[in-house]
Design brief:
- The protein is an alpha/beta fold.
- It folds into three domains: 5-187, Rossmann fold, CATH 3.40.50; 200-297; 321-712, no CATH class.
- The chain contains 29 helices and ten strands.
- It has helices at residues 39-47, 91-102, 117-128, 141-146, 153-160, 176-187, 203-212, 223-231, 235-245, 249-268, 273-292, 306-315, 321-364, 369-407, 410-423, 430-437, 441-447, 454-463, 473-483, 490-521, 543-578, 586-593, 595-600, 605-613, 621-630, 641-650, 655-666, 672-682, 685-712, and strands at 27-33, 64-69, 74-79, 107-113, 134-139, 150-151, 164-166, 296-297, 580-581, 584-585.
- β2 and β3 (74-79) form a beta hairpin.
- It starts with 26 loop residues before the first strand and ends with a helix.
């Protein structure tokens, strides 16, 4: 889910790039590295915070900050987004690059993966090109040792000329030497930067740029490095260089003309942009080989675990990948449904006993009846409904989902779904955002930041609400229990519900594919971009931490947001149900007004009003329906499925009504929190409006078409 409430705890500071220091003496430490090398784990261990970590790329979607103090210094630690290179290809990689290049951290801790040091070392060498105040932290030493990989840390330190330390980030005792090295690095003169030798073919162009380039004295970066970046046509970096160096408009234009002239010269010599990239990458590769020469000894298979290879043959195999994925999802839903049904009843009884206690308190204080009804029967009763319906499935689903995430399975899902998304001209990483959407669509929208292409990121944002979030799952489960699986009981009942829920999820995923393709062929035309997706090793999840962190960082965070919008929704709902016009409540008038459109969609006005008033929190849709039918003026206490079924049937519900409610629950406007998140992420009301309209139009169209066909065939 990226950053959550857990990453804004007592020691937290701003999550952007504005460094907040308690004192001028605070020193800034950047924690850099590839995705999935343990940056956030190290950050948590040093700061005592709980930045969420997970075993797949793209977890840190902003730069988290926290504080850490040693006996000699006080530090502001900045966990910048993971990146494979300073030659950025995504907004998150640009954040990492710009912070390292232009925000001048006092020291940079570069974390490398001991199990794949060659891949991690490329970024470390690039960072050493712009600053010498670096500590190389080789993480996951225990996993490397288990795979038979041996790393000569002393030799590596001599090769790089900067301190090198091996750690296991999740074991705090292994960080003692790192803390000591951090103090030493800041008490000693910094080592000089180590720019790579300029490729011979590019040297004349670099010399020409250096001879005429405006002053860059304001930048702590070698001019040769800047000249190569200008030739590399990294437009975002060129803008940052001009701003940081203080170039005037005339100087920027002069640099653009100079760079253009040198590019023409290079093309005449047969060095096109792709060839220039090859020259730069080849130089980096040679330096990586030189540095690591003699530093690593490993088995013939490169340390790749045989168990991982056997698991990948099953979980990513051509024949077995999708059946296994569906089986795991069905199992996850089954456990969630079976457990939630047991917990929800106890929780509901307790919360509504509190309501009785609040009523007695209001009576003892002599409050007027309208105030009691507004606060207790309106606001509190709505909150009780939301909590009793939403908390049980979340408390089960999120820990189970986190176990899959931390085990390393989610990247395999992205790998499996990459081909279908490619057919839709979208990005395989969209599957990771879809997985987040199962918990909360707002979190899924934020997670779309891991997609490099702006076009593909927009497609993922606009279609994320097709995946049923935790707020809509209770509606789906209730309708399934009352109308489609009532013949069974116990665990078998939960199994049937899980299988039907899985079928509905497959419908949602299919609609995501279809809509993604339509968008890519119309409003967001383009071809799918390539992307590198790391397949991390399978790891045994830390069960205790998974439970604690999923409860605090996910369950309570999402529940808190739902409660925040449910309270005012309860107030509005009570007013609609109790304010009258012409002898009937506003709620009754609204239901009558929407009866016509409701009939066309196989439902009625009360159901459509419930979806409209449930805009802040989908969990209250079903209780609003019951309240409208019974004209109670307040939400009903959650009764048994049989009692609710009898009420719905007595007000005209059939299997067709229930089926259309399921369809419309899957495909209708996103909740208020998700829409506000979309507005923030896209900075556009146009795309926010489209995110509202697309699922709504699809949901209305599907319900009308399904209803018309059923009625035409005489099945209802």
């Amino acid at each position: 889910m990226g950053l959550t409430a857990g990453s804004t705890g007592r020691n937290a500071v701003d999550s952007g790039l504005n460094i907040h220091k308690k004192t001028p003496e605070d020193l800034v430490v950047a924690i850099a590295g590839n995705p999935n090398v343990g940056k956030s784990t190290l950050f948590n261990a040093l700061t005592g915070m709980h930045q969420h970590t997970g075993n797949w790329p793209g977890k840190t979607v902003a730069s988290a900050q926290g504080r850490f103090s040693s006996p000699r210094h006080s530090y502001v630690m900045v966990d910048i987004p993971g990146t494979y290179s300073l030659l950025a290809h995504s907004p998150e990689e640009e954040v990492a690059r710009d912070f390292l290049c232009f925000h001048r951290p006092d020291v940079c801790i570069v974390i490398c993966d001991a199990t794949c040091l060659k891949r991690s070392m490329a970024l470390a060498i690039q960072i050493l090109e712009i600053t010498g105040r670096v500590i190389l932290c080789v993480n996951l030493m225990d996993e490397a040792e288990a795979r038979g990989i041996r790393i000569d840390l002393k030799r590596l330190e001599d090769q790089l000329g900067v301190p090198v330390v091996g750690v296991v980030a999740r074991q705090k005792k292994s960080l003692r030497r790192l803390k000591a090295l951090l103090d030493q690095a800041l008490d000693s003169p910094p080592s000089p930067a180590r720019p790579l030798p300029c490729p011979t073919a590019l040297q004349p162009a670099v010399d020409a740029l250096l001879a005429h380039m405006p002053s860059t004295d304001a930048l702590p970066i070698a001019r040769e490095w800047l000249a190569l970046r200008l030739l590399d046509s990294d437009a975002s970096l060129v803008r940052q260089i001009a701003t940081a160096a203080g170039w005037t408009d005339q100087e920027q234009q002069a640099v653009h003309r100079l760079v253009a002239a040198q590019k023409v010269r290079l093309r005449e010599e047969g060095i096109h942009p792709s060839r220039l990239q090859d020259l730069l990458v080849s130089g980096l590769h040679r330096e990586t080989q030189r540095v690591l020469g003699g530093c690593i000894s490993q088995p013939g298979d490169g340390g790749y675990c045989r168990k991982d290879r056997r698991l990948d043959k099953i979980l990513t195999g051509r024949i077995t990948a999708f059946p296994v994925m569906l089986l795991l999802l069905a199992l996850l839903f089954w456990i969630t449904i079976s457990g939630a049904n047991l917990i929800s009843g106890f929780l509901s009884d307790g919360l509504f006993r509190v309501q009785d206690w609040l009523s007695r308190l209001f009576m003892a204080l002599g409050s007027p009846p309208w105030l009691h009804d507004l606060c207790v029967l309106g606001v509190y009763r709505t909150l009780a409904w939301v909590v009793s319906v939403m908390l049980p499935p979340m408390a089960i689903f999120f820990p189970l989902f986190t176990l899959l995430e931390d085990s390393g399975y989610l990247p395999r899902i992205a790998y499996n779904l990459d081909r279908p998304f490619e057919k839709c001209c979208a990005c395989g990483k969209q599957s990771l955002c879809m997985a987040m959407g199962l918990g909360c669509n707002a979190a899924g929208v934020v997670g779309c930041r891991i997609i490099d292409s702006p076009r593909e990121r927009l497609i993922a944002i606009l279609t994320n609400s097709f995946i049923p979030c935790n707020g809509r799952l209770p509606i789906l489960l209730s309708i399934l229990s009352m109308f489609f699986v009532t013949a069974s009981g116990g665990l078998l009942h939960g199994l049937y519900s899980a299988l039907i829920l899985l079928a509905l999820l497959m419908l949602s995923i299919g609609m995501t594919f279809l809509t993604s393709r339509l968008l890519s062929k119309t409003l967001l035309k383009g071809v799918p971009s390539s992307f590198a997706l790391e397949m991390p090793p399978y790891r045994r999840p830390q069960l205790g931490k998974v439970i604690v962190r999923s409860v605090f960082d996910r369950v309570l965070f999402v529940l808190g947001r739902a409660v925040a919008v449910a309270a005012p929704a309860g107030l509005v709902l009570w007013l609609c149900a109790n304010l009258t016009l012409g002898g009937s409540s506003l709620l009754t008038h609204l239901c009558a007004l929407l009866d016509g459109p409701g009939w066309l969609m196989g439902m009625d006005g009360a159901i459509l009003v419930a979806f409209l008033l449930g805009f802040p929190a989908s969990e209250i849709v079903l209780p609003i329906v019951l309240m409208a039918y019974l004209s109670t003026g307040m939400l009903m206490e959650p009764g048994s499925a049989l009692e609710m079924h009898q009420v719905l049937v007595s007000h005209g519900w059939t299997w067709l009504t229930a089926a259309n409610v399921l369809l419309f629950t899957l495909f209708h406007w996103p909740c208020s929190t998700t829409l506000l998140t979309i507005r923030k992420e896209t900075a556009s009301w146009k795309w926010t409006a489209l995110a509202f309209l697309i699922p709504t139009v699809i949901g209305c169209g599907l319900c009308m078409a399904f209803t018309a066909i059923v009625r035409l065939l005489g099945l209802a």
